Amino acid sequence: MKYDHKTVEPKWQKKWEEKGVFYAENGSRKPKYYALIEFPYPSGQGLHVGHPRPYTALDIVARKRRLQGYNVLYPIGWDAFGLPAENYAIKNHAHPREFTEKNIAHFKQQIQSLGISFDWSREISTIDPDYYKWTQWIFLQLYKKGLAYKKEMNVNWCTSCKCVLANEEVVNGVCERCGSEVVHKVKSQWMLKITEYAQRLIDDLDLVDYPERVKAQQKNWIGRSTGAEVDFDTTAGDKLTVYTTRPDTLYGATYMVISPEHPFVEKWADKLTNLAAVREYQDQAAKKSDFERTEMAKEKTGVRLEGVSAINPLTKKEIPIFVSDYVLVSYGTGAIMAVPAHDTRDWEFARKFHLPIIEVVKGGNVQEEAFTDCETGVMVNSGILDGLTVEEAKKRITEHLEETGIGHAKVNFKLRDWVFSRQRYWGEPIPMVYCEKCGWVPLPESELPLTLPEVESYEPTDNGESPLAHMTDWVNTTCPHCGGPAKRETDTMPQWAGSSWYFLRYMDPHNDKAFASKEALDYWAPVDWYNGGMEHTTLHLLYSRFWYKFLYDLGAVPTPEPYAKRTSHGMILGEDGQKMSKSRGNVINPDDVVDEYGADTMRLYEMFIGDFEKTAPWSSAGIKGCRRFVERFWNLQSLLCGEKGIRPDVESAFHKAIKKVSEDTETLKFNTAIAALMTLMNVVTEKGSITKEELAVFTLLLNPFAPHITEEMWEICSLGDGMAAEQSWPAYDEAKCKEDTVEIVVQVCGKVRARLNVPAGISKEDALRLAKEEEKIRGEIAGKSVVKEIYVPGKLVNLVVK
RNA sequence: GCCGCUAUGGCGGAACUGGCAGACGCAAGGGACUUAAAAUCCCUCGGUGGAAACACUGUACCGGUUCGAUUCCGGUUAGCGGCACCA
């Protein structure tokens, strides 16, 4: 009796859809459960075998929750704006929308063939004007609260995409997407003040259940540090303010450095006797790309500002000021006090420029290398601080700075504001208008959505303007404020905009009065379980937490954090252990797998492949093993016998399996859950028969993993009323998970010497007595004295002899 | 350099809270069925010695704690991910 997945799988997919079994209900009185996967970007390549891994994992959770009586929301949509569609459009003179919609249709058909229990009635797409109306609406709220602003700034510019990038999108000095060189350009950009939320984005990680590595990465990225700002007097008269995390080393500051972009260079121009050399250095620094700047990091460079010097506020000594690109304009005050004895970079610089190195923390040899240890040292050469530990000195000096007005304690973050404009067509238009008289004016909310106009050319311009800039009819408008002539913003939003709030739209996707109703938000928020890739930790995950917190402050959402629990899946590699790619020729197409083995086998295999959180190589032999399991399950119907109920000799096997599967599906251990089902299969086939009740339990346990074959089994064996998907999750009895007799191990001095079969509840005394009576053990302990007896209930006896 | 993580058979991987290392699956070898093959079923399967019972040994490496360590502690090595001149 061969199992034919090609007729069974489409049959059930159709039935589920017709009956709407997976539709979530708003306003239900049942407890809710919201499971979420990252909505895909519908690329031209179609579905990858990596996609079904997280989809199946949360599908198992969602299906199990439904069987447990929850009203489950498990939605999907499309993150459909994005560069590939625009590039395709440029190349083929087609509209990016057509291309994207074709891809969506393809993705949808592929995903539906996997039997994932998504609620398709809530499908959304970020390119839908009814959707991006609310993306624009949120932007307007940010603007109204002063969290969106336009600023001339030095931005990352991808030379190939001809577009600015957020800091998060620059990886090793090149464009994250295309790998091309990234250079600096001064441009006027819309910015979002994510820095305003830096502290809360760290603090509220305590409220959520995320993997430690995700929390650590976000904290790292936000980069909080504590220290002090200190004012140094200069011979030019101006105070030069620096930020330092080591105010304790202030007595050791022997020179200062400002970044090449620091405004004081301009301010002091007429006082500098070597202005030409300084200008030359600034020009060189400006020309360097991020990549070059990182490469050059090995060798320190710089120029002294001749004609101006600073005064160390504690030692009152005059110290030189340098300009060097090892100081970044964007962090702290763009200027530092250099303490070569206790900072590696300052030490290198001091060595190169023959500057004095003064030890202020004892413990190392500062002529050999910088001593940066904060734990062991004691302060020296430091006036009021002498004899204190570093920690004490930090506290003492900060008090002193505040008393004398020289400085104050200060917290700094590495996190930068979010560059929000893109010089591209295929994104949400930014709903802002520029009026000569009124400046930037937001579009009235009643005019949303501001839709994308049809253009003829999608080619971005070399001067850095969006293709929309050519659309004079669209660009020229009237000022909503004064009614005079005005121009629209022609930059669009980044792809991260639509994905920063999509999970809220699923709660109430057809609402035209609000992004979601209060009732829907109160019922569904927060997301109970959100699974997604590690690569989004400092991008999407951080951005969406920021937007959600902003909405929380507006009173628009009910909880401080959007996602109660976050997990991450590992990638699926090619059979050769390499990342799948066309050029390596190791790509597995999910359509082929579904066609040959069926969706159930594919799902089981992707869950059985290994630790869910780790990468795992595809194995075509491995998937055959899962197909074998599916067929063995199918053949259980031939073992059906006339007996009733769950029979005593297999009862504990069933209860153990229910327990194991129930628990493991909650902790991402899908591989061992399936192993438990395989073990149960071995027990049943060994026994050679199965009752209807036993088969019903088996079928329900397997249902979340392999939904199609289990529905078919449920139906043809008449295992109960309705569909398998409409039943209740099997319950186990802890007492019945235990066997009547257990095998305990008898060790002598920690080495296994015998095994005993004893009744499960045996007492310590009986176990020890039986162990000592055992033939083998008697021999081992004869003539020796037992100095210690250890008994671990139901597991082992250990006799320590001398 | 900093932060986080990992290391177990031929392979993917199990092992609760310190208690039988290698569950489950794959591959391999042997056998049954078959004219043959596929499929299916049965047996073996970390290493060394042994016909076998069994013994010794074994979870990257060195050391420690413990009756007992894959698990805890200290150190080393290798690999993965993130950040990186952030003062």
Summarize the structure.
With 802 residues, the protein is α+β, with helices and mostly antiparallel strands.
Search tags:
802 residues; alpha+beta; 7-stranded mixed β-sheet; globular; RNA-binding
Describe this structure in words.
- This protein has 25 helices and 31 strands.
- The mean pLDDT is 92.
- Helices cover 34% and strands 18% of the residues.
- The radius of gyration is 34 Å and the shape is globular.
- The strands form nine sheets. Strands 10, 11, 12, 13, 14, 15 and 18 form a seven-stranded mixed sheet that branches.
- By secondary structure, it is an alpha+beta fold.
- The structure holds one RNA strand of 87 nucleotides.
Task: Describe the main β-sheet briefly.
Answer: 7 strands, mixed
Q: What's the alpha carbon Rg, rounded to whole Å?
A: 34 Å
Structural class: alpha+beta
For this entry, what is the oligomeric state of its chains? Answer: single chain
Tally of DSSP β-strands: 31
Quote the average pLDDT: 92
Distance between the termini: 63 Å
Write the topology of this structure.
Blueprint: H1 5-19, E1 32-37, H2 52-67, E2 71-73, E3 77-78, H3 83-92, H4 96-112, E4 124-125, H5 129-144, E5 148-158, E6 163-165, E7 170-171, E8 174-175, E9 182-192, H6 198-203, H7 212-222, E10 225-234, E11 239-244, E12 255-258, H8 264-267, H9 275-287, H10 290-295, E13 303-311, E14 318-323, E15 335-338, H11 344-353, E16 361-362, E17 378-379, H12 390-404, E18 407-412, E19 418-419, E20 432-435, E21 439-442, H13 472-475, E22 476-478, E23 485-488, H14 502-505, H15 518-524, E24 529-531, H16 540-554, E25 566-567, E26 572-573, H17 590-597, H18 599-608, E27 616-617, H19 620-634, H20 648-664, H21 670-687, H22 692-702, H23 707-716, E28 741-748, E29 751-759, H24 764-773, H25 775-781, E30 786-792, E31 796-801
Parallel strand pairs: 1-2, 1-24, 3-4, 12-14, 24-25, 26-27, 28-31
Antiparallel strand pairs: 5-6, 5-9, 7-8, 9-19, 10-11, 10-13, 10-18, 12-15, 13-14, 16-17, 20-21, 20-23, 22-23, 28-29, 30-31
Helix pairs in contact: 1-23, 3-4, 17-18, 18-19, 20-21, 20-22, 22-23
The structure holds one RNA strand of 87 nucleotides.
